[in-house]
Amino acid sequence: MxxxxxxxxxxxxxxxTTAATSTSSNESPTRGGPEWWRQxxxxxxxxxxTEGERxxxxxxxxxxxxxAECAKCEKNLQYLIDYSTYAPxxxxxxxxGVGNTMFAGPIIRFMLENIxxxxxxxxxxxxxxxxxxxxxxxxxxxxxxxxxxxxxxxxRGHLEDTLAHELVHAYDHLRFNVDWQxxxxxxxxxxxxxxxxGECRWTREAFTRGIxxxxxxxxxxxxxxxxxxxxxxxxxxxxxxxxxxxxxxxxSCFADTRPFRExxx
Length: 265
What we know:
The chain is mainly α and about 260 residues long.
């Protein structure tokens, strides 16, 4: 999170068609058809398939998987841009009293509107779904925009949390002139993004990450995830320095919930 987005990876090398290759990538068999079953069985068992056919089968499989991941990511992204999620939540709003349950507004649309008010613009031209080699869900770069790692996102909810996280980085960059080479600046925006995006809510921690902590789980999650991001900064020496920098700025940055009135997710 918060690291420069690398350029898209080069396309995989094309496998030359040979006499031993029964179908080209443009003539791959229909899923569930007789030829598809024959090739799948041959690939799994290693019987009746040449090296050229195995290479072609793998190339077709990876291409189809990448296309399916991209289509899923793009569909979910468009939905979130159009609607986002209305979720029942508990807000601490002084005018309504403490602990009033109400329906929260759509976080993605809310963040996009606030970014636009800060003279920024993020849309599908600079929010991109691409495959990632690193184990990360997304990234933000002031130069390129937002990257969503289509091969790492489980579902629409995961994409929403990831996109909300990166939108907080974009908002901070526009509103607070973040110096991305400064570890304290980096730590502060990571604290805010982890806290405000929803990725540290109890249900996400418990059912996705298996962390069943009922006391201070939100703050602990924010500290942990912010330190993980800071640790990957080129200027950070080790885990100890990452944790130290996060602790130095935690109280003030955690308390800053702009553009929200409170932590609502």
